[in-house]
Write a structure and sequence with these properties.
alpha+beta; 30% strand; binds 3-(2-carboxyethyl)benzoic acid; single chain; 6-stranded mixed sheet
Length: 391
């Protein structure tokens, strides 16, 4: 039952691998010699405060069984560190880092730091979410996000892993109104300001793949994967680049690429029990696909129709992979190249529409993690992020 979720036992040993696995499967992988870069648990799974590695809990209930951990693994030795608020792990090839800020630290941060969220004409705000997070004033949240990014970017340069490949951003009440904006738009402005300040003159070219999704409770969690050598950031022919969205979606556009293509060098010599494939290649290419929703151009399509949103989302992912195959001469096999899917579903009752379709489309080799989450635009009912592996 579990074998399908475990990375395949081949001589091709990429430097970095994602695994969506049970706690027992993770122990098996670690006993087999993998190193843990970092670990994300979902829902109410407790965090182990004594663990040496980067870890976070994201307040999104998992909708399918068994409960899975998002683990990032290396076949090379890994060391654990902390710098400021960033907990991180380093291997020779990769750096995985995480910031998790509790509610109380959010309230403290940036009260007077960065203006407010009231000065730009945003779209109509969706229904506010009641609760403690709504009491945090706009400047506070925007300033905290800006502060996190302003800490991460110079940190990566200082560590000599300056190339961001993939970012994840999770926080509660993403659709809640804050003045004329909502929390997602405030998040976008804080992120934009920090990235613009740091990536002077190369903003568009350096934005990595990302997800920004609403949790139901818990911390602001930002985690990321970075490398010494750059990935190639990619755009989707069916979608306007998010960093060019018109202002109706917020005063500052979402700063991310649709996907990042990474060619990890393969590491054959230190794998015990396997040998190199004669004539095999010396790199393995992965496409880290950003959160993808039913957006064509810049517009949300199929309001109130979760099945149609799913189909549009799949078409977006298919077109993105095809574009990368064509432009970068990497052989994927369309949707068949997907290995991991994280499916965010706003209304848990839509699982019964979405899961059978994905079951029919994908065999057991594609690991699916379904999470209850709020999508950044109130009208979006689902979003999918994915990893594809080249042949
Ligand atoms: C979209 O295409 C949907 O703000 O980092 C997807 C992935 C989305 C990442 C982000 C937002 C982000 O605009 C939303």
């Amino acid at each position: 039952m579990s074998a399908d979720r475990l990375p395949s036992r081949t001589a091709r040993s990429p430097a970095v691998e994602a695994a969506y696995v049970t706690s027992a499967e993770l122990q098996t992988l670690l006993r087999a010699g993998r190193s843990l870069l970092g670990e994300i648990r979902f829902g109410t799974a407790p965090r182990d405060p004594a663990a040496p590695h980067p870890q976070a809990r994201v307040g999104m209930a998992q909708l399918n069984n068994p409960p899975l951990i998002e683990a990032w693994l290396s076949r090379q030795p890994v060391s654990y560190h902390q710098a400021g608020r960033i907990r991180f792990a380093r291997s020779e090839q990769a750096l995985f880092g995480c910031i998790a800020l509790a509610d109380d630290s959010r309230e403290g941060g940036g009260r007077a730091a960065s203006g407010d969220c009231m000065d730009a004409g945003g779209r109509a705000t969706p229904g506010a979410v009641a609760g403690t997070t709504a009491e945090i004033e706009p400047a506070g949240f925007e300033g905290v996000v800006r502060g996190c990014y302003a800490e991460i970017l110079p940190f990566l340069d200082a560590q000599a892993y300056p190339q961001l490949l993939r970012m994840w951003n999770y926080f509660p009440a993403i659709n809640a109104a804050l003045g004329d904006l909502d929390r997602y738009q405030c998040f976008c402005r804080g992120r934009f300001e920090a990235l613009k300040d740091y990536y002077v003159g190369q903003f568009d070219q350096r934005l990595p793949a990302a997800s920004a999704v609403g949790s139901h409770d818990g911390d602001l969690v930002i985690y990321f994967l970075a490398a010494k050598t750059p990935g190639k950031h990619c755009e989707n022919p069916r979608q306007m680049s998010a960093y060019h969205y018109p202002p109706q979606y917020g005063p500052r556009s979402p700063s991310f690429a649709r996907a990042t293509l990474m060619r990890w060098p393969e590491n054959r010599s230190c794998v015990s029990g396997t040998s190199a494939v004669p004539g095999g290649r010396d790199e393995s290419a992965y496409l880290y696909i950003s959160g993808t929703a039913s957006i064509v151009g810049h517009e949300s399509l199929h309001l109130d129709d979760p099945r149609a949103q799913l189909e549009e989302t799949l078409e977006n992912i298919r077109a993105l992979i095809e574009r990368v195959e064509h432009d970068d001469h990497v052989v994927f096999r369309g949707l068949d190249s997907l290995t991991h899917l994280k499916v965010y579903i706003r209304h848990p009752e839509h699982l019964r529409l979405i899961q059978p379709r994905l079951d029919a489309l994908f065999g057991p080799r594609v690991v699916r993690l379904y999470l209850t989450a709020d999508i950044c635009r109130a009208e979006l009912l689902m979003e999918i992020e994915a990893i594809a592996r080249a042949r």
